[in-house]
Write a structure and sequence with these properties.
Blueprint (H helix, E strand, L loop, with lengths): L2 E6 L14 E2 L2 E2 H9 L7 E7 L5 H9 L3 E5 L4 H11 L4 E6 L7 H14 L3 E3 L13 E4 H10 L3 H6 L2 H4 L6 E3 L16 H14 L7 H10 L20 H12 L23 E5 L2 E4 L4 E4 L3 H4 L8 H13 L9 H12 L5 E5 L2 H16 L3 E5 L6 H4 L30 E3 L5 H10 L4 E7 L10 H11 L3 E5 L13 H4 L5 E4 L10 E5 L1 H4 L16 H16 L1 H22 L4 E6 L2 E6 L4 H14 L2 E2 L3 E3 L6 H22 L22
Parallel strand pairs: 1-4, 1-6, 4-5, 7-9, 12-22, 14-15, 14-16, 16-17, 17-18
Antiparallel strand pairs: 2-3, 6-8, 7-8, 10-11, 11-12, 13-19, 18-19, 20-21, 21-23
Length: 677
């Protein structure tokens, strides 16, 4: 009977890359594990089973330099990797050890093997139930059992984790060893940087002895508990139930403040601890996560950047041609001229254009132009206009000034105190408030800067009244159409209401997923861009303008704004119909192609989280708002509502007494931008 220990190891760990090669006592972790395991008297051979990926070449060479064999197979189908390795090695009995457990105890391994032989079962372990510290996991199985599992196991989970199929099936004989005291709360495996710190400290304490037994570590815990503090907050075996994206997000939060680059895309805004977080590809209105799971995006569609859907063929082809021809050079790209001309053609009131790449910077550019043109400093604002100092300074006097425009309690750390009083907020549809603001700041306001529409449209000729106030007081009127542009009209939403600004700003959908933004305006004001310094290297790149030109061409030909407006209205009506069906009180809001709903309930945020949680299981990215694109066909929308219907029924049950908290599998989502959720 040949007994082989197969050590499962790879360097492509998402949470802690290269972990098996991380140094402990100036040795690779895998070396310590193999050295300790070599003390076993019941093992005939020790082999490391790694993946075929090129990044694991170094692991193979390290293992072989230590005098051990290395077999290689599928990275994701670890069950198949184990089976083929065992078959190649002609093993009768396989002992599964994972490479992230350097504190594996050879005496405990031998005890498990002896019990396996004595009891003559198919599978024996010390993990059913778990009573030993995490990191001492030992599984012993017959070759025949492994072979059967490889033939019969079908789920990705079973194939990635090797033994769940055996452990959960009644068709295998099984037994286990348990410790008299439950020590399962102790974490000695290495999955996270904190784990490595703890395990390194343990080895350093016993150094130069590397063969200390696991009970010695328990004694160390009693006398030096501080050594074990670093990883206490990490849950044991949480990785088994986490997708690749969730693991990568944990890693991201260690190196990226906040975890990512955009607040609106943080997993906490959707489904904390459960959101897939990262995509591998996107096409039409579908998104695939890092594990290959496919979802229909009935949510924010790239924060509204893709009216024509993800990966639009014509737009992408235009970009590919640009890349092939060269994106940057000492010369300027001609496309910036053609795009500027097209934007002026769409908006005859405008004469000139400046381009940038993002909405926040084009908003800051417009403020600079207004101040340079008028010689005034103050800006009256309504709505969301980016992250720059000029905007956040709104909260310097009162940290609630932006509550109705962006986020409640927004902090202004890092914004110069000298900007106090330079940005003045007013509420949408409140013309009296704006009049008073202008009167209180006579001849000091450079611009009125506002979104054309927020959650509802203008009332009582509001926009025209704003236009008149601006004209009467020699104030530049700026419409921020970064979000609203091209969704209900071909161009700016202001065209629908017949009110012309002095400057208008576009972004998001302008390039259908490629970075481009634009400030258009009247010549008398735009020329001020030459009286100040407004310049950036990558405003001259070619991809954005090329994408925008083709996007505008496709929009105009297909009348995309009509399609998405019609579908958006349809979706809003069906939300209302669904709420009526279950006697739920909801509000619908937003532009038709950027619409959402809220429950008039104290549990609104919990209901939103619940919907996101359950729709994700059904293959939808969905909460309580949607950016509609032309790829949202009737069939897709019908499927979405079929999936949503039973969730509204459960929410009705919650309104009648069922505790929504019992339905949630993790924390409640954070509240985000008022316009978006």
């Amino acid at each position: 009977m040949k007994v082989v220990a197969l050590v499962q190891a790879r360097t492509g760990s998402v949470r802690l890359p290269q972990k098996v090669l991380k140094p402990i006592l100036n040795k690779p972790m895998i070396e310590l594990l193999l050295s300790r395991l070599s003390r076993s008297t019941e093992l005939d051979e020790i082999v490391v089973a790694t993946s075929k990926e090129k990044r694991d070449d170094k692991l193979e060479s390290t293992v072989e330099s230590l005098g051990f064999k290395c077999t290689r197979g599928s990275e994701k189908d670890v069950l198949d990797r184990f089976y083929k390795s065992a078959k190649f090695l002609e093993a009768d009995v396989i002992v599964r050890i994972t490479g992230d457990c350097p504190l594996v105890d050879s005496y405990l391994v031998d005890e498990c093997i002896r019990e396996y032989k004595k009891q003559e079962v198919d599978y024996f372990s010390n993990i059913d139930p778990v009573t030993y510290p995490d990191g001492l996991d030992i599984e012993v199985m017959s070759f025949q059992s492994l072979e059967r599992a490889n033939l019969e196991a079908e789920t990705d989970f079973d194939r990635e984790h090797v033994t769940p199929y055996i452990r959960n099936s009644d068709s295998f004989s099984k037994s286990s060893i348990q410790h008299e005291e439950d020590l399962s709360g102790q974490r000695w495996s290495v999955d996270e940087p904190e784990d490595l710190i703890v395990v390194s400290k343990i080895f350093e304490y016993f150094s130069p002895d590397i063969f200390f037994g696991w009970k010695k570590v328990i004694e160390l815990l009693e006398i030096r508990p501080e050594i074990f503090e670093e990883n206490k907050i990490i849950k044991n075996n949480e990785g088994a139930n986490m997708g690749t994206g969730q693991k990568l997000y944990k890693r991201a939060k260690r190196i990226i403040p906040g975890g990512n680059m955009l607040l609106s895309k943080r997993p906490e805004m959707f489904l904390p601890e459960q959101w897939p977080s990262y995509f591998s590809k996107a096409k039409g209105c579908k998104v695939w996560d890092l594990d290959g799971n496919e979802y229909i995006d009935m949510s924010i569609m790239g924060i509204g950047t893709n009216i024509l859907g993800y990966g639009h063929l014509e737009v992408d082809e235009a970009v590919h041609k640009t890349i092939e021809a060269g994106n940057m050079s000492t010369f300027n790209c001609s496309e910036e001229v053609y795009l500027s001309e097209k934007l002026v053609e769409l908006h005859p009131w405008a004469d000139m254009v400046r381009l940038a790449r993002a909405g926040g910077e084009i908003n800051s550019m417009a403020v600079r132009i207004a101040r340079a043109s008028t010689g005034r400093d103050k800006i009256a604002i309504c709505g969301y206009h980016g992250w720059h100092d000029w905007y956040l300074s709104t909260n310097l006097n009162n940290d609630k000034n932006l509550d109705g425009h962006l986020l409640p309690g927004l902090q202004t750390d890092g914004v110069p105190r000298g900007l106090v009083g330079t940005t003045l907020p007013f509420n949408y549809n409140d013309i009296d408030q704006l009049e008073a603001l202008i009167e209180d700041n006579k001849d000091e306001i450079a611009a009125i800067k506002m979104e054309v529409s927020r959650n509802e449209g203008p009332e009582d000729n509001f926009l025209q009244k704003v236009r008149d106030l601006a004209t009467e007081n020699n104030i530049i009127l700026i419409f921020d159409e970064c979000t609203s542009g091209f969704r209900e009209t071909f161009g700016g939403l202001h065209r629908k209401y017949g009110v012309e600004p002095d400057l208008a700003l576009f972004g998001k959908a302008l390039g259908n997923g490629y970075a481009i933004s634009a400030c258009i305006g009247r010549q008398e004001f735009m020329q001020a861009a030459q009286q100040t310094f407004i310049s950036s290297t990558f405003w001259t790149e070619r991809i954005g303008p090329s994408a925008a030109l083709k996007t505008l061409e496709v929009m105009e030909r297909t009348k995309s704004w009509e399609t998405i407006t019609e579908m958006g209205n349809n979706i809003s009506k069906r939300w209302k119909s669904l709420s009526d069906k279950y006697e739920l009180d909801i509000n619908t809001w937003g532009l038709p192609a950027l619409s959402g709903f809220t429950f008039n309930s104290k549990n609104d945020l919990s209901y939103k989280t619940f919907i996101t949680q359950e729709m994700l299981k059904k293959g939808y990215l969905a909460a309580n708002s949607i950016y509609v694109c032309t790829e949202h066909t009737q069939e897709i929308v019908d499927g979405y509502f079929e999936a949503l219907d039973p969730l509204f029924k459960i929410i009705k049950d919650c309104e009648d007494g069922l505790d929504i908290k019992t339905m949630l599998e993790g924390p409640i989502s954070h509240s985000g931008f008022k316009r978006l959720n």
